[in-house]
Amino acid sequence: MMLIDFFNKNKKRIFFGLFAILQTADLLAVHFLIVNKILPGSKKILAVIDSGKMQYNTEGYFTGIIWANLLVSAIVGGLLVFGILKITELLLKELKITEGSIPAGFVVAGFIAVYIILLLVAIIAGWNLYNVGCPLLAYFTGWLMWASMVKWKSEIEKGIKI
Predict the structure, then answer these.
(1) CA distances (Å), 33 to each of 1, 43, 68, 73, 74, in order?
(2) Which residue numbers in the chain have pLDDT < 50?
């Protein structure tokens, strides 16, 4: 009886915690996708572009790899993070767990904070910056797209008075 009463009183908090755990798992999957698939695939992107002036093992080739890593991580990873955030936001609102959109972005904001700290540690320790920097760029890009959409939506709703 006591457990049922606790569940009934804290139902919204429990479901919000479950959604936060699922969102954390999804964001970690985005990290592994970027590190294991996107970063090694940047050489294939440059091979498809096949610039005649770009020779392998030159400075221009490595600059191209860097830009391909950053752009693909920001675009593909950012769209994945945006989708995760938008689905979480819609589910939280539809199930009436939260009133507004802002709580859906808490987990990603936490990931951004943790990855900024990890990036600083990677810079100091001399680790591979791509394994931390590219997922950070993806999280930040997706979160920025989502936050701007939430802001624009609230401004439009304020402006339309029927």
Answers:
(1) 44, 16, 15, 10, 13
(2) none
